[in-house]
Automatic annotation (TrEMBL), chain A:
It is a peripheral membrane protein. Its main location: cytoplasm. Residues 1007-1106 form the Sec23/Sec24 helical domain. Residues 81-480 are annotated as: Disordered. This is SEC24 homolog C, COPII coat complex component. It is found in: Cytoplasm, Cytosol; Cytoplasmic vesicle, COPII-coated vesicle membrane; Endoplasmic reticulum membrane. GO terms for molecular function: SNARE binding; zinc ion binding.
UniProtKB/TrEMBL annotation, chain B:
Residues 58-98 form the Zinc finger Sec23/Sec24-type domain. GO terms for cellular component: COPII vesicle coat; cytosol; endoplasmic reticulum exit site; endoplasmic reticulum membrane. Residues 586-672 form the Gelsolin-like domain. This is Protein transport protein SEC23. The lineage of its organism: Eukaryota, Metazoa, Chordata, Craniata, Vertebrata. GO terms for biological process: COPII-coated vesicle cargo loading; intracellular protein transport. It holds the Pfam family zf-Sec23_Sec24. It is found in: Cytoplasmic vesicle, COPII-coated vesicle membrane; Endoplasmic reticulum membrane; Cytoplasm, Cytosol. It comes from Gouania willdenowi.
Length: 1255, 719
């Protein structure tokens, strides 16, 4: 049996300390993984059968989505998944152990739930190798498991369901419900407990404790998890049986349960208790109804059903059931019984899970399962004890922290549900919740794993190794059958982010070569000490491989994401402006690199040697300065170009077009006034807003008026120019109908200074909406519109920006006329790629002309149908402009978003007529560029416009060997014209280390940046390749990266282990998000325009944009205290509590998700209404209420919006509302409706790929 | 009819017709021998205050290819109610409405004094007059201002229901929409692109038929509204348009050093013609083009925008160096033809010190019956008053202009029309020459063709036109002359010769040939023809001589020469010179250098110029200010006399002549010196004695020499 253990974070710093520097192997000790892996293996091997069966059930739900090809494997995966979950739980326990010992009790409770699975796992593992695994598996099930092992992770339902659907329902609804019914629960629990107790006791006997511990650990430590998983199952079962309530309860009740547990602790007591306490109230009622409800509700229903159906019905299941079921059932029944509904429901679910285990792990399983159930509670409670030994600290801590409060809340909340939710989730979800609270926990758990494992391996990955071994021994039989991977057991983005935040407490100084900056999600201050701030430049790797062979071998992309004009926070100084006089900036004679801190002055300062090409250049007399004893120039610190990473030179006339100093730029507003535009209110909105906006044109000196001139054009089938010369009493309209051969009808009076022509302009803007109020023209042109702007700029001999407000496909007879080519049938075929390519070449030519003139085009689209963004976007994208899209624009609901976008777009700092050149030191070379720009040769990136939000991703390739001594240097120079018409050069320097050891490479890279690169790479790829091929390439590359690591850097360990480098442990989850994005994997409701739009949007995103875009930020809002943000939760439906309110930020949207049973107080605070049903889901802004919560929330939303370059419209999503589908689309860890794999599934798949590569 | 003189005068007064011969030779051969062709000067719309139009339609001959109008020359059978066409001899019944006809009760058209009669036709809805201003904005600020004022003033002269439109051009061409409130809206066309009429109409949104057809909506309302956007009744847009004109900017495009401003005259005209063509075909319309320089870009360009390339001169043309000439001419001819077909006339008001391309553009006016006015600046009274005079009214308060005229000439079988010279274009109708639109005079040459007979030949002119009060009218003039046998009745024929008419006719023929043939050939041709005194001046006139005249000036002079009536034409050929002195009333004197005396004031009228020349002594007196002294009141009167006379001329003449007040030795005196017969030159100065006149510094031959040569020639040629 190959246990595939994923190494959790190998290096577990205490809890949160993620040591990036060291190779931390994240041990994703996913029991599940192991199982899965095993499963796979098994499948191949005899084991397959049993797994298969259970898997099938799982598979169906989970796998189906993944890929056709994977089914089998997935199947196993699913099976494993549960295992993973278990694993996760285990981690919990693992953690538990360390911390657990002390905190155990208190924590234990929360952990219990987690622990149950996890703890069990761990516990289990140690004691019962085989059993534990199953329990673990079962555990996951418990939580979800009780209902559906597999589901557990994904479904909060578990909780609720536990009772009814032991698997499904217990997990989700059951829990909740359970919590809801508190009263009944109380009693219910008791009974369940009683019933469970027996089970639990049984479980507890061996696994329970372990489970309890395990579950949490499972999350964190894969290895442990593995074991736990197996155990967990049992525990889960218990949970479910009684647990469902219990499980939930556990979360909720943790404390109580723990207490109970503790009191009764050992095994059974804990388990039962927690459940009882938590579940008891909840379970009965919840179980009964929830199950049913939950199932349908749950997105996962399929899996659940599968579980329920599959597991139970199937023979294997039957077997399981037979074995475990009985036990489980028994256990459940007991618990269930209490709650009438539960009982009913439980039986079915119960059986399946139990059966599965039973068959495989008849004896052990059942007990495990039972124990698990108990474990769940035990997790928290239970785990502590066992963990106390092992993971205690971390687990406990992590768990405690989150759970603690939750737990506290829970008890009371339980009845209330809402409050309880979080806790419940934690608890109930055991796994699920565990994860959330456990995130911290899980990771910690991982460390824990390490801890437990450590003993054995003692390597960096001590944990992993340690874990694997036990797991392998433990897991094999048991886990496989029932377990799914516990999501808490796999690397959590949230955890990583939080760890990173915790680590940063002082400004980041850029002086140290090769030092990776904090993550984009972390707020930190930067001190420029010789390298460009990460706000300007971020690299994928800060240790570049010395040779191309290494680079090739590792497959880690070498790239930098450069955002040349990024805006800096107020506390950081903008780049200094350096004037080298009439002769211009000092440059290397040969490679023309600009003076920078890397230049070596020699011969007493009379010459300098270029750091890029080694050429020696004379220092011009006016620049001469003596050197000090260290060979540095005496004035080194007085000159920005000698001491800083980023600075600007004043360019001389030699750097200007036609050797003529540039004119101030102009802004031209081109407004569609066809029927659609007028009717939607667009025209009047734009005109109204422009009156205000014109006062806020970009300027360098805030005191002075902007020198930017403005012009106005409206158009439908013909163009209308406006003469707004100051001397006129009324504006004049000039109609140009000759669209076939565009020209500018006037010069003087078209581009005017706002201050001078204010009255005329205002008069014009007042009249435009009136003039076209009765228009019946529906056809529009587009090409001539841009031509018009371009011609106007040409005539005025200046650079500038066009703001085009456009509504429809340009079908009027004119150059650039398009036809509707949207054909859904082509999606997924070889011809699909052609739909991303421009329909006609006209726009490419036009774009080229625009770039030559420095004419940047920003396109605001308001389509009601297909407008062929792939074609219309060509010019904006090639000129460094932006495309904004407001589908089905309606004044009322979209006005705010549009106006905010427009304001920002008009006001933001922008440079024109820019040319960017990236120079590198010998050995590497910038080979490819991604972003919004035009390239006429292979080295110069030409941007007609470059604003503060645009990033360019540059890929580097070796063309020689690098030396570790000198490292690798890059210098990005951007020549541009400021908004006041000054020609400048902005220079960013960046030095990174070089390494000859692959391990160094993996130790010092940045996943977010890699994802940025990979996504852009992929999105370019779909222009020429089949989308599926692109996806496969991505998966392949990712697998190779990880396999290379595994092969070369990870300590020897079982092949079944999934070992991820610390720096890249999130690579799979993020990559999965990329693969699932609408562009690469469109859902049925995603139009071609949407995809083209996103494709273009992503192409110029910087790292923080791509990060939040691919992995949305999901904040629980139950508590908003102080200035700190609540800790985010993972983007998965399991993490959502029915009683909670969540805020999700995707970079493009904001969602406020309101649980169906949210607390009234919360509703009052947020919406000012006491009833869930009275919430107006059409609102786009929260009502202004005078209470701290509302204020804080609105502040929060405002601050989010302020951070993004595009205004995010707030959408209120009520649970179970239709709109929830949209929202769920962004729960990226879940399986997506368009067929994207869930995180867990994908991780398994990735593991498989890696294993294939390794073998 | 007592004498031929009286007969001729009476005929002209009544019918506006003067024939070179009032007895026609009866055969073609004989006609040819007469040298001066049988032809006539005809003024179709001669003002006849005493001729009230009749309110019914003319009675036409029923023969399909005849359609002559019932006239006093027809034989009428009152009993049978039948009349015989005097051209084709078809017998036609009178229409029912003539049932009451009898010898005692004759309709007007049968009365001899109504040889010219005007009918008012009630057919169709009367279309309003249309005035489309096409304004060059590449002018000096001062000029533009003056032009704007003139245009604004003209609005008040238009009848309230007349439609006005405005097109301005410089580098671009703007068609201003007049209907919109608030924002002034205009359609802009690139000045370099030749657009077809269809394209123009589409771009102006005038291609209604298609659009409305598609939408299945009635055409009419849409059409009306669409037209109205650019052509609006004056009363409705008066204020609007005044403001619009007031805000007209100079062409905003910068003109680099060493360049001419870019003027898209060609496209502007094309748009104007296209606009009218698409909206009001076959309706009276007047395109008034105001230009301050030559077209410099696009189709119809006359000269490039490089100042270093001067505009073509006669010299260039003779050397075939005018690269744009042919192309531009062809372009404008095409436009003119289109415009003529639709009954729209084009005026050109060119005010610039340099040439403006009239040579190329003259056909626009020539073929459509438009005016050409040439001046130095829009800011001169010459232009201002001339322009004002365009809108002068007749005794009925109607404009002295008519639109969309079609002139048919019907002749007896023995005669055929061989052509017409004048502001007209042939419709290529079989058997008749048709002139287009006109304001005033058309000149026809009728050449007889087949068999002469005893009896009378008849010619009928049928002119259909739109009166300026929007009525459609038909004016019919029927004329008959006797045939005479050249052999037997040569004296009669001789005596019927109309010297003045013949002179003008020959001159016009000369000009016509000059325009279409090489200059020297024409002179030779003319010299070979019968020559009278005036021919000396004709030879020297700008109509034939291009020396010292720019191509534009030549075009301008010729344009006017072929369209003025006989009296004016004679003035053009031989300027009139009056002499004022203390010795008596003003007297006409010889146009000779000998007439230039120190104590005389001369008033010369060349039609285009009105020169007052103060003799040397007079000038000195005037400078000394004697006229201010009471005791020299008579001197003051003497000074005033020519001024008053000049004023009188100025007020009636169109276009207003250039008014020059100069004195002996003044630079402007050249106008006079270039016209007088150089009987005294630097060559024969001493032979004539100083006190008798002023010498002219020229190598031109004097009349004396000319006559000597002529006599010699006459004798030898006759031999």
């Amino acid at each position: 049996m190959s246990v595939c253990e994923t190494e959790g974070l190998v290096k577990h710093r205490p809890l949160g300390s993620s040591t990036r520097t060291a190779d931390t192997l994240t041990l994703l000790s996913y029991p599940g993984f192991r199982d899965e892996l095993k499963m796979n293996v098994n499948q191949h091997t005899p084991l397959a059968a049993p797994y298969g069966q259970p898997q099938p059930g799982y598979v169906q739900p989970g796998y189906a989505p993944l890929d056709g090809g994977y089914p089998t494997s997935y199947m196993p995966y699913h099976g494993p998944a549960p295992a993973y979950q278990h694993g996760a739980p285990q981690q919990g326990p693992a953690r538990g152990p360390p911390s657990s010992a002390p905190p155990p009790v208190a924590t234990g409770q929360p952990y219990n739930q987690y622990n149950q699975s996890q703890g069990d796992m761990q516990n289990g593992p140690p004691p019962m190798t085989q059993e534990p695994p199953r329990p673990a598996a079962s555990q996951p099930y418990n939580s979800g498991a009780a209902t559906l092992p597999g589901h557990q992770p994904s479904y909060p339902q578990h909780y609720g369901h536990p009772s009814t659907m032991q698997q499904v329902t217990n997990q989700m609804t059951g829990m909740q419900i359970n919590s809801g019914p508190p009263t009944a629960a109380g009693p219910g629990y008791a009974p369940p407990y009683s019933s469970q107790p027996p089970v639990s006791s049984a479980y507890s006997a061996a696994p329970p404790p372990s489970y309890t511990q395990a579950p949490p650990p499972a999350v964190s430590s894969g290895s442990v998890q593995m074991a736990p998983p197996s155990v967990p199952p049992a525990s889960q079962q218990q949970y479910y049986g009684g647990p469902p309530p219990q499980a939930f309860n556990p979360s909720l009740p943790p404390t109580t349960s723990q207490q109970q547990f503790t009191s009764a602790p050992p095994t059974s007591c804990q388990q039962p208790l927690p459940p009882s306490s938590y579940s008891s109230p909840m379970p009965p009622p919840s179980q009964a109804p929830p199950p049913l409800v939950s199932q349908p509700q749950q997105p996962f229903p399929p899996p659940q059903p599968a579980y329920s159906s599959a597991p139970p019905p199937p023979d294997s299941q039957a077997a399981f059931t037979s074995g475990p079921p009985p036990g489980a059932q028994v256990s459940f029944p007991p618990r269930a019984p209490p709650p009438s509904s539960l009982a009913g429901s439980f039986p079915p679910p119960g059986p399946p899970p139990s059966s599965a285990p039973s068959s495989q792990y008849p004896g052990s399983i059942s007990p495990h399962q039972r124990p698990l159930p108990s474990h769940p509670s035990p997790y928290h409670s239970g785990p502590p004890p066992p963990r106390a030994q092992m993971p205690p600290t971390s687990m406990a801590q992590s768990n405690h922290l989150p759970p603690g409060p939750q737990g506290q809340q829970q008890p009371p909340l339980q009845p209330g549900m809402s409050a309880g939710y979080p806790a419940q989730q934690n608890g109930a979800f055991g796994q699920v919740r565990g994860p959330q609270p456990g995130y911290a926990g899980p990771y910690p758990g991982q460390p824990n794993y390490g801890a437990p494992a450590p003993a054995a391996p003692a390597q960096k990955r001590l944990d992993p190794d340690a874990i694997p071994s036990p797991q392998s021994s433990d897991m094999p039989a048991v886990q496989k059958s029932r377990h799914r991977i516990d999501p808490d057991a796999i690397p959590s983005p949230i955890q990583v982010i939080e760890d990173d935040k915790a680590k940063v407490n002082e400004p980041f100084t850029t002086g140290v070569r090769g030092q990776a900056p904090p993550l984009v999600t972390t707020s930190f201050q930067v001190k420029d000490q010789g390298n460009a701030s990460p706000r300007f430049v971020r690299c994928t790797a800060y240790n570049m491989p010395c040779t191309s062979d290494m680079a090739k071998q590792s497959q880690v992309p070498l790239a930098a994401v450069i955002k040349p004009l990024a805006t800096l926070p107020p506390d950081e100084a903008p780049p200094y402006l350096v004037d080298h006089g009439e002769s211009g900036p000092i440059r290397c004679n040969r490679c023309k690199a600009y003076m920078c801190p890397y230049m070596q002055f020699i011969e007493g300062g009379r010459r300098f040697q270029c750091a890029f090409c080694s050429c020696v250049t004379e220092v011009p007399p006016h620049y001469f300065q003596h050197l000090d004893h260290t060979g540095k120039r005496v004035d080194c610190y007085e000159r920005p170009e000698l001491s800083l990473g980023s600075y600007e030179f004043l360019a001389t006339v030699d750097y200007c077009k036609n050797n003529k100093l540039p004119q101030p730029p102009a802004f031209i507003f081109l407004i569609d006034v066809s029927y659609n535009a007028v009717k939607s209110g667009l025209v009047s909105i734009v005109c109204q807003e422009l009156k205000i906006l014109l006062d806020n044109l970009p300027r360098e000196n805030p005191e002075a008026d902007s020198v930017v001139r403005v012009g106005f054009v409206t158009y439908n089938k013909v163009l209308h120019f406006y003469n707004v010369k100051a001397s006129l009493a009324q504006p004049q309209m000039l109609v140009v109908s000759d669209v076939a051969d565009m020209f500018v009808p006037l010069l003087d009076g078209f581009l005017v200074n706002v201050a001078e022509s204010r009255l005329v302009i205002e008069s014009l803007l007042d009249q435009i909406p009136e003039m076209f109020a009765d228009t019946r023209e529906t056809e529009t042109v587009f090409g001539p519109v841009i031509q018009a702007g371009l011609e106007a700029l040409k005539a005025a001999d200046c650079a500038g920006k066009l703001f085009v407000f456009h509504t429809s496909l340009p079908i009027a007879e004119a150059p650039g006329k398009l036809k509707n080519r949207e054909d859904k049938k082509l999606v997924g075929t070889d011809k699909e790629k052609s739909l991303f390519q421009p329909q006609v070449s006209f726009y490419n030519t036009l774009a080229k002309e625009c770039v030559a003139q420095g004419c940047c085009v920003d396109l605001f689209l308001f389509p009601n149908q297909y407008v062929d963004i792939a074609t219309l976007g060509v010019v904006p994208v090639s000129t460094g402009g932006s495309v904004y899209k407001y589908t089905y624009f309606q004044a009322q609901s979209d006005q705010e978003r549009f106006l905010n976008d427009l304001r920002r777009d008009v006001q933001k700092p922008v440079g024109f007529d820019a040319v960017m050149r990236v120079r590198t030191s010998t050995g590497i070379r910038a080979t490819d560029f991604y972003g919004s720009f035009f390239m006429s040769n292979t080295t110069d990136v030409e941007l007609a416009g470059l604003d503060c939000d645009k990033a360019v991703t540059v890929e580097f390739k070796h063309d020689d060997k690098l030396s570790e001594e000198t490292g690798a240097l890059m210098q990005c120079a951007v020549l541009y014209t400021t908004c006041s018409g000054q020609r400048r050069l902005r220079v960013h320097n960046m030095a990174v280390n070089c390494c000859s050891q692959l391990a160094d490479l993996y130790r010092n890279c940045e996943t977010d940046t890699i994802i940025n690169f990979l996504s852009k790479y992929a999105l370019r790829g779909i222009l020429n390749n089949h989308t599926k091929a692109v996806r496969d390439t991505l998966i392949n590359q990712c697998a190779q990266i990880l396999a290379c690591y595994r092969k070369n850097c990870a300590s020897p360990s079982s092949a079944g282990q999934l070992i991820l480098p610390e720096c890249m442990k999130l690579l799979p989850v993020y990559l999965n998000c990329v693969l699932k994005s609408d562009v690469l994997l469109p859902g049925a409701d995603i139009s071609l325009d949407d995809r083209a739009y996103l494709r273009q949007l992503i192409s110029c995103m910087d790292v923080s944009d791509t990060h939040v875009f691919f992995y949305p930020r999901l904040l629980p809002l139950m508590k908003l205290e102080g200035d700190s943000l609540p800790v985010a939760v993972r983007a998965s439906e399991e993490r959502l509590s029915k009683g909670g309110v969540y805020l999700m930020e995707t970079g493009l949207h904001l969602f406020l998700w309101v649980g169906a049973s949210v607390q009234q107080e919360l509703l009052l605070n947020i919406f000012g209404t006491p009833s869930f049903s009275q919430i107006d889901s059409a609102m786009t802004n929260l009502p202004v209420l005078d209470n701290p919560f509302s204020k804080r929330l609105r502040e929060l939303i405002d601050s989010f919006r302020a951070q993004r370059s595009r205004y995010m419209k707030l959408m209120v999503v009520k649970q179970e509302d239709r709109a929830e589908l949209v929202f769920k689309h962004f729960l990226v860890e879940d399986k997506s409706s368009s067929g994207g794999a869930s995180y867990v599934d994908f991780l398994c798949h990735m593991h498989k790929e890696i294993r294939q590569l390794l073998s | 009819m007592s004498t031929y003189q009286e007969f001729i005068q009476q005929n002209e007064d009544r019918d506006g017709v003067r024939f070179s011969w009032n007895l026609w030779p009866s055969s073609r051969l004989e006609a040819t021998r007469l040298v001066v062709p049988v032809s006539c000067l005809f003024t179709p719309l001669k003002e006849r205050p005493d001729l009230p139009p009749v309110q019914y339609e003319p009675v036409l001959c029923s023969r399909a290819n005849c359609k002559a109008v019932l006239n006093p020359l027809c034989q009428v059978d009152f009993r049978a109610k039948i009349w015989a066409c005097n051209f084709c001899f078809q017998r036609n019944p009178f229409p029912p409405s003539y049932a009451g006809i009898s010898e005692a009760n004759q309709p007007a058209e049968l009365m001899p004094q109504f040889s010219t009669i005007e009918y008012i036709v009630q057919r169709g809805t009367p279309a309003p007059l249309i005035f489309l201003y096409v304004v060059d904005t590449c002018l000096e600020e001062e000029d533009l201002q003056a032009l704007k004022e003139s245009l604004q003033m003209s609005l008040s002269l238009l009848p309230p229901n007349a439609l006005v439109g405005l097109i301005t051009f410089g580098r671009m061409v703007q068609v201003h929409e007049l209907s919109c409130e608030g924002i002034a809206k205009s359609y802009v066309f690139r000045g370099t692109k030749d657009l077809s009429a269809k394209q123009i109409q589409e771009m102006l949104g005038l291609s209604k038929p298609m659009a409305s057809g598609q939408q299945g909506r009635p055409v009419a309302p849409q059409d009306a509204s669409a037209f109205c956007r650019f052509l609006q009744p004056v009363h409705r847009v008066d204020m609007n348009l005044t403001d619009l004109l007031g805000e007209l900017q100079r062409d905003p495009w910068p003109v680099p050093q060493g360049k001419r401003p870019l003027r898209s005259t060609g496209v502007a005209l094309s748009v104007a013609v296209g606009l009218l063509e698409g909206t009001f075909p076959n309706t009276g319309a007047r395109v008034m083009l105001f230009i301050g320089g030559p077209p410099t870009q696009g189709p119809g360009m006359v000269v490039g925008d490089e100042l270093k390339t001067p505009i073509r001169s006669w010299h260039d043309i003779q050397k075939d160096n005018a690269r744009h000439l042919k192309k531009a001419t062809k372009y404008y001819e095409a436009l003119a033809n289109r415009s003529a077909v639709n009954g729209h006339s084009i005026d050109i008001y060119a005010c610039a010190l340099d040439q403006t391309g009239l040579l190329e553009m003259k056909c626009l006016s020539n073929l459509t019956g438009g005016h050409i006015v040439m001046g130095d600046s829009f800011n001169t009274s010459l232009f201002k008053q001339t322009f004002q005079r365009v809108f002068s009214k007749d005794y009925n308060g109607d404009f002295r202009m008519a639109f969309g005229g079609v002139l048919e000439v019907k002749t007896s079988r023995e005669l055929k029309v061989c052509g017409a010279i004048g502001p007209c274009v042939s419709l290529n109708a079989k058997g008749s020459s048709v002139s287009e639109n006109v304001s005033e005079r058309t000149f026809n040459i009728n050449h007889n063709a087949p068999v002469p007979q005893g009896g009378r030949g008849a010619v009928q002119f049928v002119t259909q036109y739109q009166h300026s009060n929007t009525q459609r009218r038909i004016r019919v003039t029927t004329i008959a002359r006797n045939w005479a046998d050249a052999q037997s009745q040569i004296q009669h024929i001789e005596s019927s010769f109309d010297q003045e008419a013949a002179a003008v006719l020959m001159a016009r023929l000369g000009v016509f040939r000059a325009e279409s043939e090489e200059g020297p050939d024409v002179l030779r041709w003319l010299d070979r023809q019968l020559i009278r005194l005036f021919m000396f001046h004709m030879r020297r006139s700008p109509f034939l001589q291009v020396f010292n005249n720019s191509p534009d000036e030549s075009s301008y002079y010729r344009h006017h020469f072929v369209r003025q009536d006989l009296t004016q034409s004679l003035i053009m050929i031989q300027p009139i010179l009056y002499s004022y002195s203390f010795y008596g009333p003003p007297e006409p004197v010889l146009l000779d250098s000998s007439s230039i005396l120190p104590d005389r004031i001369l008033l010369m009228d060349t039609f285009f110029q009105l020169v007052i020349f103060h003799g040397e002594t007079i000038a000195q007196w005037r400078k000394a200010g004697y006229q201010e002294m009471a005791e020299y009141e008579n001197f003051k009167q003497l000074l005033q006399a020519p001024l008053d006379d000049a004023q009188e001329i100025l007020q009636t003449r169109f276009p207003m002549p250039r008014y020059v007040d100069t004195e002996h030795g003044g630079s402007q005196a050249r106008f006079l010196l270039s016209k007088v017969n150089p009987s005294q030159t630097h060559n024969n100065l001493y032979a004539w004695g100083q006190e008798t006149g002023a010498p002219i510094l020229t190598d031109d031959v004097s009349l004396q020499v000319f006559m000597d040569h002529l006599k010699k020639l006459a004798v030898s040629s006759s031999a």
